[in-house]
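Aim 2 progress update. The chain analyzed this quarter is reproduced below.
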Amino acid sequence: MITKTDDIIWRVVDDEALILNTSNGYYFSMNGTATEAWCLLNEGKSIDEVARTIAERYEIDLASAKADVESLLQDLKNEKIVESES
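Predicted structure tokens:
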């Protein structure tokens, strides 16, 4: 399961996720598709569920959607915005 770290506060404004890491003061923003993936992950959806939703909504193949979601997650992990729980 993917969860946001404790130091993260966020809001969606005009279809854009605005994320603040309170431990280091870094601020991030996400485009519409990434925001949608972020919101689904915050609902507890799995990577596969998020990828399926994105693929269906934007009419792209599932493999591409999954690769995009995994890339987003790696970026979020690198910035200490999310962490993986076993």
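The two ends are 7 Å apart (CA to CA). The longest helix spans residues 62-78. These observations will guide the mutagenesis experiments scheduled for the next reporting period.
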